[in-house]
Amino acid sequence: MIWCPQCKRLVEPALKREEKRIILLCPSCGYVFATSLGVLSLDEEERRFKLWLQGLMDVEIAEKLGLSDGCIRGWRERRGLPANRPNRRMRTYKPFLDAVPSEWTPARKVAEKLGCSTLRAAKMLKRLAELGYLERVRRKTEMGNIYFYRRVK
């Protein structure tokens, strides 16, 4: 299996071996390309690509394979693969998610715990509920209708 730079898929190419390179024909798009024989075996190519497909970053792939992250970055860039990035949005939501206990809690309590405004906490908790990380329910209280949140079990 190898990454086709034209159709951007992992394919089992038709192989033609020459002295120092392999000529590959992609069966899905018909693209012909060559790869050096001495650099990587097809097994190594497949191992790296599978780790990349799992969403691992260059540093994580390098650690698993015992290589430098620059080696993996070069391999990925030569094949035109985009870098896998950490989920930055989840990093923003994580403190809010961790601040919500398993029992029903209003956004005001979460805001007090995190030291932010109630409005910011309410917006973040609403978004986490929409993403399915929290349960959200509206209850009538003496102060009016208030949303309460708790972790999904």
- Structural category is alpha+beta
Principal-axis shape equals elongated
Largest sheet entry? 3 strands, antiparallel
How much β-strand is present in the residues? 15-25%
Uncertain regions: pLDDT < 50 for 5+ in a row? none
The multimeric state of the shown protein is single chain
For the terminal residues, how far apart are their CA atoms?
A: 41 Å
Q: Could you spell the SSE succession in H and E letters?
A: EEEEEHHHHEHHEE
Please tell me how large the radius of gyration is.
Answer: 25 Å
Question: pLDDT average, as an integer?
Answer: 80
**Please, how many domains?**
2
The count of β-strands is 8
Helical residues, percent: 40-55%
What is the count of helical runs? 6
Strand order of the largest sheet: 3-4-5
Note the main attributes of this structure.
6 helices, Arc Repressor Mutant, subunit A, 153 residues, alpha+beta, 2 domains, 3-stranded antiparallel sheet
